[in-house]
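To: structure desk
From: M.T.
Subject: fold request, one chain
Message: Could you run this one when you get a chance? Sequence is below, nothing fancy, just the single chain.
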Amino acid sequence: GANKPPVISNFTGVLNNGMWMFSGTVQDEAAGGLTVTFAGSYPPASGQSATTNANGQFTLTVTANGGFGEV
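Reply: Done. Structure tokens follow.
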């Protein structure tokens, strides 16, 4: 079959002690070592990236600021 584009699943954002932790799983034929780049209107996360582990899981932790936006 054709190579399908990667899909992010189980994406969550948790605020704890002034830190946001964003995590999820990339589903792909070769999910390890992929780069997930964050974009949107939340400056601490926008432009940041995370690399998937062998199972496609990734985590990005950033310091929370007072503004909330979309990621």
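Reply (cont.): The chain has a mean pLDDT of 90. Let me know if you need anything else for the meeting.
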